[in-house]
Specification:
Elements (H helix, E strand, L loop, with lengths): L9 H10 L3 E4 L8 H10 L6 E4 L9 E3 L5 H8 L5 H12 L6 E2 L8 E3 L5 H4 L13 E2 L2 E5 L6 E5 L2 E3 L4 E4 L6 H11 L4 E7 L3 H7 L9 H9 L4 E4 L6 E3 L4 E7 L5 E4 L13 E13 L5 E2 L6 H6 L1 H14 L4 E6 L8 E6 L9 H9 L8 E6 L7 H11 L2 H4 E8 L5 H10 L4 E8 L10 E2 L3 E2 L17 H7 L3
Parallel strand pairs: 1-2, 3-17, 4-12, 19-20, 20-22
Antiparallel strand pairs: 2-3, 5-16, 6-9, 7-8, 7-11, 9-10, 10-16, 11-14, 12-13, 14-16, 15-16, 18-19, 21-22, 23-24
Helix pairs in contact: 4-10, 7-8, 10-11
The structure holds flavin mononucleotide and manganese (II) ion.
């Protein structure tokens, strides 16, 4: 039987899900300015989101796909990893620890067409403008760069805003792997060579959005996921290797004096417009592509964006679990904050000695990322993936004056408007208060009994039944086994 995670190329995965009715095709002509993003946003708002293939995007020869990763089930299948959340985390940690480096080959599909002169990459490679307020059209590419000292490549996801004349603005952040490579090049006054890949296999997108330690190539993670190395080919005009299966490869340089321009606004992962900022301009030096290339559009703030960040959730779990392996049961970052700003930690406070340790663990957990804003701690009986359960635990187990701890004036991400507004208004640093919500039952109440037997913090215990024993086969199919 065909296994989806063994397929290569974006097109074959689209065919696979297309045959199973999980990718809808839109034949109607759609506008890359606002309409495509509007459809993607609406599809992501559905309880179950199909993948989508726009076959006729105005002005482009190539189709554009999206939303394949919006469903966690497809994402796990594409990665060949278990669906159960805790097993998924453990399996992801294991593959991340056994990277399989890419291998260089002579040629590949991404070289079917090679443009070095008289081409306009911005007209060939599909891009979208997401909302009318945006600074321009954008690619959401994989960004492949090289550390000039070690020669090790990095793969990340960074948006790129289109200018004219084969130029784009790249949203590099200092603290990322790309920022690290760029800084080293700048110090030596060298041109910074960058390959932007659009329409790559989807496991490469997941790997690119994964924060591996500096000096590790994220294509090695793709190799580990596939259990075989990714084949890479050398670019035409820069010394960077790119996946042979890529749809489009845009080669370019950010040259001294590293001219900048205004990037943004762009609707960010928290569904607010970003604050425009100065970012470096990249000049395109070549474009290569497959004849059957498919573009891929990602809209921030959607389910697909959140699934793309699943590996951050895995990394948070590992960080927190390693702090106190016998006390921490599970940990997760909430999808509502793009697996970024709100962490949930589940602990098993089954001994007097553990009281207070949950606060210590939460303080230490902030070390995971400066973007963490809130940490909520819950007991082992709370489903940490269900925000209704978290809400219930906070309301019924947390006395705010005693169990909410506020730390003032801490750095965070400027795209969280409650922090960014402050920077804009008075030029002060990008920060806000952070908090720890301790929604675990205080130890002193743990064994509190009502009457003679019932511990008062225990949930009402309903009889366990199998509804199949009570319903007609028809009703069972209709309501349960849909
Ligand atoms: C859809 C999407 C868009 C992203 N855009 C950017 C971006 O424009 N700039 C950025 O610094 N990080 C962006 N990220 C986050 C980085 O890809 C992520 O932090 C990655 O782990 C960085 O890898 P690196 O440390 O190897 O550079 C984006 C992530 C996703 C899922
Ligand atoms: Mn990296």
């Amino acid at each position: 039987m065909i296994k989806v995670h063994e397929l290569t190329g974006l097109g074959s995965v689209l065919d696979y899900y297309g045959e199973r009715g999980e990718v809808i095709e839109i034949d109607k002509e759609v506008d890359s300015e606002c309409e495509v993003a509007g459809i993607i946003f609406a599809l992501n708002a559905l309880p179950t989101t199909p993948g989508v293939l726009f076959k006729n995007v105005k002005g482009y020869r190539f189709p554009v796909a999206s939303c394949v990763l919006s469903e966690r089930s497809r994402t796990c299948e594409i990665l060949g990893l278990p669906l159960s959340p805790l097993e998924f985390k453990e399996a992801f940690i294991k593959v991340s620890q056994n990277l399989i480096p890419p291998v260089r080959v002579q040629g590949g599909p991404c070289k079917e067409e090679i443009c070095r002169r008289d081409f306009d990459a911005l007209k060939i490679v599909p891009s979208i403008k997401a909302t009318p307020d945006d600074g321009g059209k954008y690619f959401q590419p994989l960004v492949i760069t090289k550390d000039p000292e070690t020669g090790i490549q990095n793969v990340a996801m960074n948006r790129a805003m289109l200018l004219q004349d084969n130029r784009v603005i790249l949203n590099v952040r200092n603290e990322t792997g790309v920022g690290h490579d760029f800084r080293k090049c700048r110090k030596e006054g060298k041109p910074f060579e960058v390959a932007l890949v659009v329409g790559a296999p989807l496991e490469m997108y997941i790997a690119a959005a994964t924060k591996l330690p500096l000096g590790e190539n994220e294509l090695g993670l793709v190799g580990a996921i596939r259990k075989k190395p990714v084949e890479v080919v050398k670019c035409e005009t820069i010394d960077v290797d790119v996946p042979a299966e890529a749809g489009f490869v845009i080669e370019g340089v950010i040259e001294p004096p590293y001219e900048q321009s205004t990037e943004g606004p762009w609707p960010e992962f928290l569904r607010y417009l970003s604050i425009p900022q100065q970012k470096p301009i990249m000049k395109i030096t070549a474009l290569t592509y497959r004849k059957d290339a498919v573009g891929y559009a990602i809209v921030a703030g959607t389910k697909e964006n959140y699934t793309l960040r699943l590996s951050n959730d895995v990394a948070f779990y590992k960080y927190v679990k390693d702090l106190e392996p016998n006390f921490v049961v599970d940990a997760a970052l909430t999808p509502g904050t793009a697996h970024w700003h709100h962490g949930i930690i589940q602990v098993k406070k089954d001994d007097y000695d553990f009281e207070g340790l949950q606060i210590h663990v939460a303080m230490a957990a902030y070390g995971f990322s400066v973007y963490l804003e809130t940490i909520t701690i819950v007991d082992e009986d709370v489903n940490i993936l269900d925000m209704n359960e978290i809400d219930w635990a906070v309301t019924t187990r947390c006395d705010p004056a005693e169990q909410i701890h506020i730390i003032r004036n801490v750095k965070t991400h400027r795209n969280n408007p409650i922090a960014g507004a402050r920077e804009l208004m008075d030029g002060s640093f990008v920060g806000k208060s952070k908090m720890i919500i301790d929604a675990t039952v205080p130890w002193k109440y743990k064994n509190l009994k009502r009457g003679t037997t019932l511990p008062i913090f225990e949930r009402a215990r309903f009889q366990n039944v199998n509804l199949k024993d009570y319903m007609s086969a028809h009703d069972y199919r209709r309501w349960i086994n849909k």
